[in-house]
Amino acid sequence: MGEAVRRRTRNATVATVAATAAIALTATGAYAAVPTDTSALEDAVTADGVMEHLAELQAIADANGGTRASGTPGYTASVDYLEELLTDAGYLVTRQAFTFNSFTELSDAEMDRVSPDPVSYVLYEDFVTAEYSGSGDVTAPLEAVDLVLPPASSANTSTSGCEAADFDGFTAGNIALVQRGSCDFAVKAANAYDAGATGVIIFNEGQDGRQETLNATLGDAFSDPIPVVGTSFAIGDELASLLEAGEVVMHLATDTLIELDVPTENLIAQTPTGRTDRVIMAGAHLDSVSSGAGINDNGSGSGAILETALQMAELGIQPRNAVRFAWWGAEEAGLIGSQFYVDSLSKQESKKIELYLNFDMVGSPNYANFVYDGDGDAFGIKGPSGSDDIEHLFSDYFASQGVASEPTAFDGRSDYDAFISAGIPAGGLFTGAEDAKTEEQVGLYGGLSEFDGEPVSYDPCYHQACDSLDPVADGADAELYEALNAAYGGALEYEGTISNVNQEGLSVMADAIAHSVLTYAISTSSVNGTAKASAKAAEKAGDHLGAHLFR
Predict the structure, then answer these.
(1) How many C-alpha atoms does 275 have within 13 Å on its Cβ side?
(2) 124: exposed, middle or buried (C-beta count within 10 Å: 0-12, 13-18, 19+)?
(3) At what angle do helices 503-522 and 387-400 cross, to 10 degrees?
(4) N vs C: which end of the chain shows fewer Cβ within 10 Å?
């Protein structure tokens, strides 16, 4: 890597190094009992520093077809960039190779109601291609399969499509309409295919929190060659009502590519000092989706922990506990890299990991400060014992800074999932993705809950090409992004261009990341010896597999 892409050196003063050394010698108790002075590292880890890494990741994507997805040259170049910086900083760096099955949409999918009353549905708003869907272009009658309408009061009640018997009498050649419920989407789609369906529309179940457009995955083992899409409860319910009155003809078209055994890798960097029987892990996925550069998702998390690692080295911090930073591959394909890593650990190696901190999207343009709900009191899914301490460390830190925060669920959406399933205490931060920001949150964090009569999400460019340093040029709504930037006093601007990263929110998150990593690097007594999973935590968390729902 040439000088143009090397990190600029920040000079650490003798006083700062001395203060850091004093921290290492004196912080021996639990976090709550002996607070750790992390101010020197917080001052060193800045939004400006993180943005420099995001500029490099953007340049890498621009030079490699506009993407940094796992299995592509853009991802390999991203790993190369991090590896050189971390090696030069003195870390012990490992590239952990593995393979996965990749999924790519080659062109935009289509879903239309041909009759009655023709309607062309809007991709990403009204419907989404199920991840690992096959390809196909079919126009055929729609046929409902064992629907529960109105929906039951409890979630996961509908068994629509879950058994082969649900398709008894199904007309081969028709498109199946099935409802989200108690079994995996892959089971529904496979049963439909076996019954002769030429396409599948899966709609949300209908209870509170289960009405939006489904972003589904069939899993990388699904191989049936038919189009499968997810849609909202409202659209599914309307189609079912129309079927009661007569024939409904639908058109589905998907154009996908599934490649088997694609090579990719994780990047692991560990401090050369510190106890290796009490390892602190901090991780972020490095890959983007295939459609874009992934600057917020998850260049922001990757860049933030990279800057933390580099500044720890530059300040000469000698951690009491070894710190292992990880950048995961193939997260967007279903958390594959982090799961591969955890699966590769021996029982003894797993026990040596004291805790895992996850940072996935920490620069959302319309951000909120979310902390993973380690104690489960907000969402009912708690992490292994010790996860509550991590949650409280973050929430206490934000409170000490006069900054609002709120819990978010351990629902299986990110790379913490493999760790909590293995009984390793976990926690982390998140600034929001596709969900809409509320008016109450605008009062807490600023930004917009509505624009031009429509709700505004935390990241309007989530999983799109416009998740970049120039979202407007990459297809984002120019007026919306100008309004967001104005609402935050120019915090989205980077080198004169409105970006998809809110540097106000990123600065808050970068400080919290630095604080958490150093606090646990010096002393882990608040979670020491707690690497046992509760029965709840040992189960698959929620219905998510990464960004997609699998059930």
Answers:
(1) 15
(2) middle
(3) 130
(4) N
What percent of the chain shows pLDDT beyond 70?
A: 89
Judge whether residue 318 has pLDDT over 60: yes
Tokens of 216: 């589904």
Chain segment 454-485, per-residue pLDDT in tens: 999 999 999 899 999 999 999 999 999 999 99
Whether the per-residue pLDDT at 261 is higher than 90: the answer is yes
Q: For residue 117, give both structure tokens.
A: 């009353």
Q: How far apart are CA 534 and CA 448, in angstroms?
A: 39
- Residues in CB range of 104: below 8 A, 6 or more apart: 256, 257, 258, 259, 290
Gap between the Cα atoms of 1 and 295, Å rounded: 20
CA distance 118 to 528: 62
Number of neighbouring beta carbons within 10 Å of residue 486:
13
Question: Do 164 and 138 meet the contact criterion of CB atoms below 8 Å apart?
Answer: no
Residue with tokens 């964090």: 445
Active site residues: 331
* CA pair distance 179, 409, nearest whole angstrom: 24
Rg (CA), the chain: 24
Q: Which pLDDT band, with edges at 50, 70 and 90, does 433 fall under? A: very high
- One-letter identity of residue 526: S
| Cα 242 → chain centroid | 37
Cα torsion angle, 123, 124, 127, 131, sign: positive
Predicted confidence band of residue 536 (pLDDT cuts 50, 70, 90)? very low
Assigned token pair, 71:
């299995």
Could you give the CA distance from residue 161 to residue 147 in angstroms, rounded to a whole number?
Answer: 9
Among 128, 133, 130, 88, residue whose Cα is nearest residue 110 = 128
| CB 414, CB 360: distance < 8 Å | yes
Q: Which residue has the higher pLDDT, 538 or 387?
A: 387
Q: Are 499 and 468 in contact (CB under 8 A)?
A: yes
